[in-house]
Amino acid sequence: KTMRIAEELGYGCSVIDHRAYGEKALQLVITSNLLGRALKSWCGSSRLEKKVPDFILRHRDERIVKAFLEGVVAGDGYIHHQGRRGTDIEVKTASRTLALQLHLIAMRLGYYCRIYEYPAVDRVISRRFVSFKNHYRVDIRIPSRGNGRIRFTDDYALIPVKAIGKRHYRGYVY
Fold it and tell me: How far is CA 124 from the centre of its chain?
């Protein structure tokens, strides 16, 4: 679909199939300096600088915002259907800004959301040594019925506390 749209707009396109190298990815290459500059400005110029364009983040039509979130999940996410409990979505990113913005979008849509931060690591990917900076996992829970018991004010999202308990602890509290 993306390739058809790009070609209709007059951009050159090609597809690189990474499945031949044991990966599960297809890469779509669109050749346009103008589009490249616009995307860098709107979305960031590297994986560490990825961000949601302001015109999406602040869009008044929640259907547009939801469609953007669905696109992010389709590209960088994982969906697990939990039946009556709802649907769990997981997105991993190297961009702290993108993780926080996805959290904002999820809360705006009435979904529960958590962000986990992981420390820097070194890995081998596609026979290459890759050094990762801190990275983030955004977990989103879409309740099966409505937004559960989340309530919104002009300034806050109010989420009910499930339980409060006591634990024995010895040591310093910072």
Answer: 23
